[in-house]
Amino acid sequence: MQEKLYFYYTNDLHSNFNNWPQVAGFLKEAKARRASENQASWIMDIGDHVDRVHPVAEAFMGKANVQLMNDVGYDLATLGNNEGITMSHDELYHLYDDAAFQVVCANLQSMTETEPEWLQSTVYLQSDSGIRIGVIGLTAPFNAFYELLDWHISAPFETLEKHLNHMKESADIIVLMSHLGISQDQKIAHRFKAIDVIIGGHTHHLLRNGETVENTLITAAGKHCGFAGEVELTWDHARQELIDKTAAVYDMTEQPRDLAAEETLNTLTEKADDLLGKPVIELAEPIEVKWFQHTEIMQKLTDTLKEWTHADAAMLNAGVLLDQIPAGFVTHKDIHRICPHPINPCMVELNGAELTEVIRASLSKDFTELKLKGFGFRGEILGQMIYSDLDVQTVVRDDGSEYLESVYYQGMPLDPAKQYRIATADTFTFGRLLPEIANAEDKHYVLPEFLRDLLTYTLRHKVPAD
Fold first, then answer.
1. How far apart are alpha carbons 303 and 439 in whole angstroms?
2. Which CATH number applies to 2-272?
3. Mean pLDDT for the chain?
4. Sorting pLDDT into bands at 50, 70 and 90, what band is 164?
5. What is the DSSP letter of 431?
6. Could you give the dihedral angle defined by the CA atoms of residues 443, 378, 183 and 204, in that order, rounded to the nearest 10 degrees?
7. Of 13, 120, 214, 306, whose CB is crowded by the most CB atoms within 10 A?
8. How far is the C-alpha of 378 from the C-alpha of 320, rounded, in Å?
9. Which residues make Cβ contacts (< 8 Å) with residue 4, sequence separation at least 6?
10. Dihedral over alpha carbons 268, 274, 275, 278 (to 10 degrees)
């Protein structure tokens, strides 16, 4: 006799709720259909469901996301970095207190005295016929951030070595919920052949029919729930083994909307508006924001960044502010809309030669006009770099291009060999935007504050109130 087992999953929603009513309807219908056919099925999320870029996630600090997952009937979830490092320790510690699903993340540990009650390293599922499925979850090891929040992420490969032998003895099938990214999933499949399925995320890759590496089926469904995924496993009871594994994704934009989910979202949005509607300051005049010019508000924000981090100097791109700040009462909702990024302040140590190269690169149109997606940035373009306690002298050529002429710190030219502590957005410590910052050996992140918290402080303390 053969038996089918089904896993339905989402990954990297990032609180983008545009398709959520369709996702909810699809998942509810799929689970009901499998139950009517007497086939086992489970719903899981692979992390980054929460993203504080959305007012609902911001107002409820992720707990509204958990409510939405409860309403759908999720069975399992693991953590992404957006759940892990965009909240205080206490906020993450209690994020899943009311979850009706099991939270599985084997490489997350609290550095305080107790672990959250909801945290499990592995779980075991069982079909009515007795097939046992061992599930383990892993998340990306961003310990430079996690440890500032009193969490630690163990190395994924070492964590698998610790758990897999016991899982092989206890389960017929092993499934990994991986918020590690496609390249790590592929490496795991090559190395750990006992894993039957890896359901992945983090790098927003879309594998429409999955891919097979060694004996492991790898799958993922992109980002923002434009798609939701299905894994179908076929177990042969006579042979006592898994004989087939397939993966598929389904376009959520083509699915009918679940009215209950839509109504819940509307209610949560209204409540979020109320919670974020508290005024921060009353302004007599609107505050101008420009992406390619120096403005007073960006200068004050960059000065705040320098002071907040106790740096020698600071630099911040003007594109972090998305819109003008209106006259009248400015609320937390306004600030969230204007500066929605989950970006933390940070300080890096650069010598004068490295800092000069960073400033030179940031003057180019390739930098200022870059439409960046990712690394925490949720804006349109990077914009002009604004400096605090750095005097940057440039030359504008006939073609409009701007070139660096000289840089002064405290009235003196930068010393190529001297170390300077430079505050900036943590965005630049990732990728290849500004290699000297990304490759700096000394990086000091400030958590859990976001840039919008510094903007709130700036408005309250450095801008005249009405």
1. 24
2. 3.60.21.10
3. 96
4. very high
5. T
6. 160
7. 13
8. 8
9. 39, 40, 232, 233, 234, 235
10. 160
Q: Residue 459 and residue 451: Cα distance in Å, rounded? A: 12
pLDDT digits (tens, 9 = 90+) for 183-194: 999 999 999 999
- Only one residue has tokens 């995924």, namely 229
How distant, in Å, are the alpha carbons of 38, 120, 292 from that of 237?
16, 29, 66
Does the 279-462 domain belong in CATH 3.90.780.10? yes
Helix (H, G, I), strand (E, B) or coil at 59: helix
444 within 8 A of 341, measured Cβ to Cβ: no
Distance CA 397, CA 386 (A): 20
Q: Are strands 328-331 and 279-283 parallel, antiparallel or unpaired?
A: antiparallel
Burial class (CB in 10 A: 0-12, 13-18, 19+), 311: buried
Query: What's the whole-model pTM score?
Result: 0.93
**pLDDT, tens digit, for every residue of 101-140?**
999 999 999 999 899 999 999 999 999 999 999 999 999 9
Alpha helix locations (H) across 154-295? 156-170, 182-191, 259-275
Task: Please report where in the chains the tokens 């907040």 appear, as a residue.
Answer: 308
The 3-state secondary structure of 71-103 reads: HHCCCEECCCHHHHHCCCHHHHHCCCCCCCCEE
